[in-house]
Amino acid sequence: MVRVGQSQTFRALARDQKNRQIDRELLYHWRVLEGSAHLEHIDAEIVTFKADEPGLCGWV
After folding, report:
1. How many other C-beta atoms can be found within 10 angstroms of the C-beta atom of residue 4?
2. 21-22 and 32-34 as β-strands: parallel, antiparallel, unpaired?
3. pLDDT tens digits along 29-54
4. Whose CA, among 25, 29, 54, 60, lies 20 to 30 Å from 13?
């Protein structure tokens, strides 16, 4: 849960079929599917999520 006006960082962890972490040759693209929020650094491994209004957001 992120309060309005606050932010939260998230990190993508890519793994292969043997559960080994993959860290090379990756492309990232984060987006908010619904709700009132925005993301910073959408093309990076780590993204900052900022809540603009109360409510639920879906993101990938």
Report:
1. 12
2. unpaired
3. 999 888 788 899 999 999 999 988 77
4. 54
